[in-house]
Amino acid sequence: MTVVIISAESYCNREKIAERTARDLGYACLGREALMEEASRQYHVPAQKLKEALKDPSSLLTKLSSTRTRALAYYQAALLSVLNKGSVVYHGEAGHMFVNEVSHVLKVRLTADLERRVEWKAARKKIPGKKARELLLKEDEQRQKWFQSVFGMNGMEPERFDLVINVAEIPPEKAAVTIVDTAKEVQFQPITYSVKAMQDQELASRVRAALIDAYPDVTVTARNGDISIKTKGLKKKEKITLLRDQVQKMEGVSHVELGP
Amino acid sequence: MAVITISRGSYSKGKEVAEGVAAALGYECISRDILLEASDRFNIPEIKLVHAIHDAPSILDRFTHGQLSYITQIQCALMDRVKHGNVVYHGLAGHILLQEIEKVLKVRILADPALRVAVVREREQVSEKEARRMIAKIDEERRKWTRRLYGVDPWDSSLYDLVICIDKIEVEGAVRLICQAASQEAFRLTEQDRQKLRDRALSCKLRSALLDLDPNVTVTSEYGNVLVFTRGDDRKAGRLEKKILSVAEGMDEINNIEIRPGEPKPSGDA
After folding, report:
1. Is residue A150 within 8 Å of residue A72, measured between CB atoms?
2. Under 8 Å between Cβ of B101 and B3
3. pLDDT of A221-259, one tens digit each?
């Protein structure tokens, strides 16, 4: 039931290490692209739109903040729905930012110094080192901008992870062994409290995703099935009743509180 | 057989982890004792060594020659201890002082600020505010020290092979992870690596002994065959050579010594 989230700098063998980890743990393995497809299916949004909104900080689409807010809400809800089932390795850039304070989630970052990443990129793309360096630096900058614009912070500080592995020194298969062994540590096994915390976050994100189109400013918290919704978009009584009924019918919801 | 450095934020349980790793692997665990050794060996008050390795210079200042010389002496004492391998070193910029040594397993231990505050409060019997202030001050000093001297940020995780957040993984888990990493081929010392360590220790030792004669002296060693590069001009060269030879005479590890006055310093050597 443990969940492993792997984030990585580019060209750090993220996918390979995630797949190896999942195989050794007997878990499912899911990457960012597959999750976008899942979010697209669940929330009836074209996958391409989601990708644009979540990927490129300079695209026109992402400059419309409500578009990005919606895309992020769908992505988070789809991610938490997968993580809530447990026994999964998710690998993507920002997965670690969407789930907090759940003790059975192991957050891992893969890193390597720029020189090695330049070597790897040059070899993989068959381009000169100078070109590879230029491209990498540009990509890194784009990522930083994206994190800054979405989360208002760097998001990659080592303190955000339980484990940071330098794959320039530790080869992929050994990195996977390290992750597997850590995931088996007792601290990362689910306990009643952590399972509830994950369920609450999953439910809150699902409710928010259901409401975000009509109420872009909505914030939702959940505690043991009790939902608290805050939005400024509720002025008419009929609207309040409709919204309460809509949420009350959702799976896992036992009580709904509404507020401005 | 490996050399492991454990870098840690203050009050981050790094000492416990280092001692645990050393006990599990049967390695020697060293830390502050290298300061005492350097202090004894070079007859420098320990407090001066502590200041040299702890205090960052102000923005406008550079490290003084004295501070740099103390850091070299500390590095020398450390090299002497790690030259046979099977060592866990924690604290005092080990990953930086040993940065030119290949196959060192470099680990950083992080702790949640709240945990560090709790440890400081318990250990130092201070208020939460004071504990936060103390931690921020130590972190800032450490950051400045490393940046000014080596141009890197100790918080940059790519400087390390493993960064472990101690909050959830805890001391026992961290010990297991580090032991497992140390057993990997990438960190296992071969006889050739050990020879490099011995050569490095020797060049450090000779350089330390020569700093007073020429602060710009550089020393290399390969299987005990030593080259000394000095910046001295022709007038001083003869005198300097005599002094260097007399210092080297007491070092049994030296097979052969050559002095190259006025030659440029080769990169990456002591």
Report:
1. yes
2. yes
3. 999 999 999 988 777 777 788 888 899 999 999 999 887
* Domain identity same for A23 and A79: yes
Last residue of a domain, one of A188, A212, A241: A188
Whether chain A has a CB inside 8 Å of the CB on B169: the answer is: yes
B7 touches chain A (CB under 8 A): no
Cβ of A187 within 8 Å of Cβ of B169? The answer is yes
Q: Is A235 exposed, middle or buried (0-12, 13-18, 19+ CB in 10 A)?
A: exposed
Any chain A CB within 8 A of the CB of B176? yes
* Superfamily the domain B3-187 falls into: P-loop containing nucleotide triphosphate hydrolases (3.40.50.300)
Distance CA A124, CA B67 (A): 45
Q: Considering only CB atoms, which chain B residues are within 8 Å of A24?
A: none
Contact call for A181 and B158, based on CB within 8 A: no
Quick one: which of B120, B180, B158, B106 has its CA closest to A158? B158
List pLDDT tens digits, range B16-60.
999 999 999 999 998 877 666 666 666 666 666 666 666 655 544
Domain count across chain A: 2
The residues of chain B that CATH labels 3.30.300 are: 191-261
Domain span at residue A211 reads 192-252
Nearest to B186 among A158, A159, A169 (CB): A169
ipTM of the modeled complex: 0.81
Please tell us whether the domain made up of B191-261 is placed in CATH 3.30.300.
yes
